[in-house]
Write a structure and sequence with these properties.
The protein is built from 4 helices and 6 strands, in the order αββαββαββα. It has 136 residues and is an alpha+beta fold. Helix content is 29%, strand content 24%.
Length: 136
């Protein structure tokens, strides 16, 4: 496991354990080009139609800092006794990551729950940007 990947994993776990000491927990950690690790959670809301993905807060922070995201990871667990599970970015979050280019690394879900990162280019080999004559 690469140092960057382990640091992101540890940062997400630390946030989950702090923010959600019992029960379900989920958090995201992203790394920026300057080496910052930004973390975020999904907001607790009463109306599911207003929900946001866990990583959106960290992506917005990166935009605020004008610092490109290079790596993105989301973790969750069912309760404080459960294993942490890696969540692949949803399609909308993959599109959010496209802003920083096809080389952005995203952690993906695997059958064995290993920590594996793939580029956005690998996750979206047929991205719509091809119609504009560009590739990720």
């Amino acid at each position: 496991m690469e140092h960057i990947e382990k640091d992101l994993y540890d940062a997400a776990i630390q946030l989950i354990q702090t923010r959600y000491p019992t029960g379900w927990g989920g958090a995201a950690a992203v790394r920026t080009a300057s080496g910052k690790i930004l973390t975020s959670i999904a907001p607790d809301i009463k109306n599911d139609a207003l929900s946001l993905c866990m990583e959106v807060g960290a992506y917005l922070e990166a935009h605020k800092l004008n610092d490109a995201v290079t790596h993105s990871l989301c973790l969750c667990r069912e309760d404080e006794k459960s294993a942490f599970m890696v969540l692949s970015p949803c399609g909308i979050c993959q599109e959010r990551l496209v802003h920083w280019g096809g080389d952005v690394q995203a952690a993906i879900t695997t059958l064995g729950n290993e920590l594996v990162f793939k580029t956005i280019r690998e996750l979206m080999p047929h991205h719509w940007s091809l119609v504009n004559g560009t590739t990720l």
